[in-house]
Amino acid sequence: MDTLAVEGRRLPRTHDSLAFGIPRSAPGAIYALAIGGGITVGPSEGRTVVFGRNKPEVHVCIGEDDRRVSRQHGMLTHQHGQWWVSNTGKLPIRLPGSQWLFAAEESLPLAEGYTPLFVPGTRGREHLLELFVAGSDGQRPLTRHDALTDPPKTWRLLPDERLALVLLGQRYLLHESDPQPLTRQQVAEQLMELRPDAGWTHRKVEHLLKDVRERLSREGVRGLTREEVGEPVGNKLNDNLVRELVLSTTLVPPDLRLLDQLDQAPDDSER
After folding, report:
1. Which of 254, 232, 251, 231 is nearest to 241 (CA)?
2. How buried is 109 (Cβ within 10 angstroms: 0-12 exposed, 13-18 middle, 19+ buried)?
3. How distant, in Å, are the alpha carbons of 34, 142, 228, 249 from that of 189?
4. Cis omega (within 30 of 0) on the bond before 120?
5. Beta carbons within 10 angstroms of residue 144's beta carbon
6. What residues does each domain of the chain span?
């Protein structure tokens, strides 16, 4: 690939982080910057910027000394008035919000402003590719220092759903390191302690969690279906569910008060 085939301007390796913003540019222009430099190009239907390890054959070189990074690891393509990122490498690309983009998955749209991408490498290394899409006025998005804060979108939960989900995600609400959701069986056992007359079983818990995941998925929350996470599924569906509920403040640490009866119940040795 001839890197000069894309009409753009080279960014030197000394260029400031794109997190500091960009100068006035053509509306929709994209900046792409790695540790060794980068490029900025204007928007044009079908225009493509390639990034990866093989410096002579990409527009932006990333991880040039790391063989875990593919020679052509991904592409930025302008289509339908928007920039999209796709993965053409062997390892997934990590986006903000712990979202992963795998090879052969559909491209993801890039919002105006700053977006960091991370390509995993050898021995835990992560290679940063900074992106910045100029706003419709050709500048960074306007500052809104005095504007009211947009509240997060919280999700409506029925009382039984809230109780079961607090049990499922209690380790997240307790701020444990690397938390994982409880199993369906563990949730069912604790529900039986709290609501002994409700007939809770692991199958009843499974149906409840499935209903909530499907409801949120229909509302646009990603990562809540088997098709989205792939096999093996493991705990990923419920992990993604709990993270969405915590991130949206649908579940908050004070919800742990719902579990106070578990702490107050005497164990068998005290009876």
Report:
1. 251
2. exposed
3. 50, 51, 30, 26
4. no
5. 9
6. 3-133, 159-262
For residue 216, give Cα distances in angstroms to 131, 151, 244, 245.
Answer: 29, 18, 9, 10
Percent of the chain beyond pLDDT 70? Answer: 90
| CB burial of residue 31 (10 Å; 0-12, 13-18, 19+) | buried
- Contacts with 151 (C-beta within 8 Å, 6 or more apart), sequence order: none
Report the helix count and the strand count for the chain, using DSSP H and E: 7, 12
Burial letters 188-222, b for 16+ CB under 10 A, else e: bbbbeebeeeeebeeebbeebbeebbeebbeeebe
**Residue 171 backbone phi and psi in degrees, to 5:** -65, -30
Radius of gyration of the chain (CA): 23
In the predicted model, is pLDDT for residue 263 greater than 80?
no
Topology (CATH) of 3-133:
Tumour Suppressor Smad4 (2.60.200)
Rounded to a whole number of angstroms, the distance between the first and last alpha carbons of the chain is: 76
CA 52 to chain centre: 21
Q: How many CB atoms lie within 10 A of CB 81?
A: 8
Q: What pLDDT, in 10s, does the model give residues 115-130?
A: 999 998 888 888 999 9
Contact 52, 69 (CB under 8 A): yes
* Length, in residues, of the chain: 271
Tens-digit pLDDT profile for residues 207-260? 999 999 999 999 999 999 988 888 888 889 999 999 999 988 999 988 998 887
Closest of 135, 119, 143, 100 to residue 30, by C-alpha: 135
d(CA 205, CA 191): 9
